[in-house]
Amino acid sequence: MKSRLVAMSYSLVGVLLVCGVWALLSSVVAPDLPSPLKTWEESRLYILSPWEKRGEMDQGILRMAAYSLVRVAKGFLLAIMIGAPLGFLLGSSPVFHRMFDPTIQVLRPISPLAWLPLGLILFRQSEPAALFTIALCSMWPTVINTASGVRSIPQDYLNVARVLRLSRWKKFTNVWLPATLPYLFTGFRLSLGIAWLVIVAAEMLTGTPGVGGFLWQEYNSLIYSHILLCILTIGIVGFVLDRLMGMAEARLRSV
Amino acid sequence: MIELTGAGKSYGSRCVLRGLNLAVNEGEFVSVVGSSASGKTTLLMIACGLLPPDAGSVSISGQPVTDFAPGAAIVFQNYSLLPWLPAIENIRLAVEGAFPLWTAAQHRDQAEKYLHMVGLGTAGAKRPSELSGGMRQRVAIARAFAVEPSLLFLDEPFGALDALTRATLQQELARMCSEAARPVTTLMITNSVDEAILLSDRVFALSRGPGASLSDPVAVDIPRPRAANMIMREEAAVRIRARLFNPAPVEVAAHVHASA
Predict the structure, then answer these.
(1) What is the ipTM of this complex?
(2) In the CATH scheme, what is the homologous superfamily, with its name and number, of domain B1-68+192-260?
């Protein structure tokens, strides 16, 4: 208990130090950078009534984050619904792997900023284009982790499946899926992280309400403190998402 | 009847097994004794059809073996239970695979019956990680017998257990074999000569690899039931042990003895 308190006070000291550097920077070298105090004063309305809707692009920060989260959830679900089966195929069939692995390695490092215009051309609307971009950018860790999970199923379990004469479906549900589940979740966790990175870019370019869209609009309206508000929100939400997935993953590994 | 004719296996340029001739008759219990890393497990994997041989052939009841033999069950050294399923589910899965036409209730009853038979009637809901090594191997034995096999392959079934647990489970196995639903033809791999003598009708010795080959079989003419402590002193057992060690070079014999 005591050691926990100590650890927490260290974290607090760290945060205060960073705020101190931030304040120093804004007052000495970068006059355009709002100080922590100014950021708080100008963002108070958005933080203290986080759910209020005053206009299309003038809403509480939690409400904005929620728009983004819903979009991320859709894109992420799309990504894992495509990515996980693709990973299973790649992991189980060497032919399939040889056929598509080079393509995947080329598609994987493409930036969301490059995919988005293509999505806009294909779908002609910002919402499906954003989902398309999120899914396309975030599915690769799921694909690659699932495939490596399938490839590293211990030979013992594969022998058991053969010896017990399991049908294809039973082999999948009783051996393959549980054996690859930890890998699958590692993939999900990484994918979700990427999806959250992509959402900001997607919203910035399409100007839809959400943290990223709000950030870009406030940049255009020259309200710089709100940019910092958005940056902090993006960081905190991303951290919470990663922690939640990490907890789910740890639960699975303990089984 | 299990028959290996001139069977051999190499991994790359390393020859593991060479020219194996082995026959297990209907209802017979045959053991192969060998030191560790002599290719024992490879031999068993070839005999049961999980591993194709490079040379020679394997047949079961006259049919060439291409996949895991129908009507067969196997107990692995490392238990190989599925860790995410409770003990009873591990057995039930095997029963479902072996008797696809049965109802769900029949599957469950059969699994419970065999779990009781190995003395784990109350541990069915536990996962393998919550069971001791001996209990896990009991579950694995129950899983093997629950499919009512006519062929049983045992890959050092007690190799990972302590001496006391090992002795108890050897007796359990002898009992299960004698009480099985139909006569079981058994091929066991072990590193213990005493274990082989205790359980088998005939014993082969596998020479030390690479390129390991089998000795002539030695018949174990000691009446059943056999008690482990008797086996140690029984004159027939002493004679069999001597004959098993004899054809092999002294160095091999010493090694087998040390690991037994």
Answers:
(1) 0.82
(2) P-loop containing nucleotide triphosphate hydrolases (3.40.50.300)
